[in-house]
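Incident review: delayed structure delivery

Summary: a single-chain prediction request sat in the queue longer than the usual turnaround. Root cause was a stuck worker, restarted by the on-call engineer. No data loss occurred. The affected request and its eventual output are reproduced below so the record is complete for anyone auditing the incident later.

Affected input:
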Amino acid sequence: MVADRADPAHGRFFTIWSVAMAAAIFLSFPMTYFWPVASGEKHFILLRHLHGLVFFAWTALFALQAVLIRMRRIRLHRELGLLGAALVGAMVPLGLWMAGTAIEERIAKGMALPFEFAIYNLVDITLFAAAMGTAIYQATRNTEAHRRLTFVAMVLLLGPAWSRWLLLMPVPFPWLDMSPNLAADALLLVLAWHDRRVLGRLHPVTQWSILLLIPFHAVEPLIARSLAWNTVAPALFGF
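Output delivered after worker restart:
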């Protein structure tokens, strides 16, 4: 997200949706994190607070970066990009560490498939790292790829955030389990619409994101409950 195209609608699209996605993430945690912390209703381990602080900081920075581009504050945008890269470097190990802690908690509760939901954590953080790593590499080489890769990275965070609300709905398996990520993936279709309108074609980042993420997220719940995954997962997480 370094330079806007001549079409002002192009920059406006990424600014509006970046801020909207960031707001959607913050609004996903009032009942499961913000209120319990503020009221003292529930006490979380330090790791969970650190995990939340770093992820929320990156989310806020993501929205700010889009606004800075809209304001033509390119130099500040690039300087803050270094902070964004540092946050990404912290998010990956924290995400995996939090996933391992969640597994331990499920084992302690005696859940039948304690590694079931770990696939979501592993895939989301791995793809997020891949998207952001490539986005950082493309920052000064291909701005159109860079801004779409950061967009996709945010989509990958939206699914887990929206699960706080969608998983409360009375929907049977596997529809309930796949719905948060597929709801987030709908924004990739919005991005595709934007590409067609502004570029006249789908950008390769948009095209490959749709082709890879939507089909995988549709079958992910079935993989999560499969014997193969629950056999391999303990070794992957060091159990």
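Verification: Residues 1-6 have pLDDT under 50 and may be disordered.
Action items: add queue-age alerting; document worker restart procedure.
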